[in-house]
Design goal:
Blueprint lengths: L12 H14 L2 H7 L6 H7 L6 E2 L11 E2 L2 H12 L20
Parallel strand pairs: 1-2
Length: about 100
């Protein structure tokens, strides 16, 4: 993605894979934030502010990151535990429209 326009760019997936590899080398998202590899964004803020998060993987997951739960039954259980007693949650997913999968 072009960070200024938000438009997909040719070979942009290379940046995606570089980011995944950098987080993997750091040992995980928390370690990447603490070491300065990740310096902004939603995961940075979650770690910095001690906001719990659950990441679930899918069949086409690139990586996955060390923090990703690939067993979807276990991920559902982690979701249920993480949201227990909360008043508000934020759920994010990949944007399929930029790939031509959505409408």
């Amino acid at each position: 993605m072009n960070l200024e326009t938000g438009i997909a760019v040719r070979d942009g997936h290379k940046n995606h894979m570089r980011a995944i590899n950098a987080v993997n080398r750091a040992g995980g998202i928390r370690q990447a934030v603490e070491s300065g590899v990740v310096g902004s964004g939603i995961m940075f803020e979650c770690v910095r502010r001690k906001v719990p998060f659950v990441l679930a993987g899918g069949v086409r997951d690139d990586g996955p990151l060390p923090d990703t739960i690939m067993d979807l039954i276990a991920a559902q259980e982690a979701y249920a535990h993480a949201v227990d007693g909360l008043d508000m949650i934020l759920m994010l997913g990949p944007c399929c429209t930029r790939l031509g999968w959505g409408t």
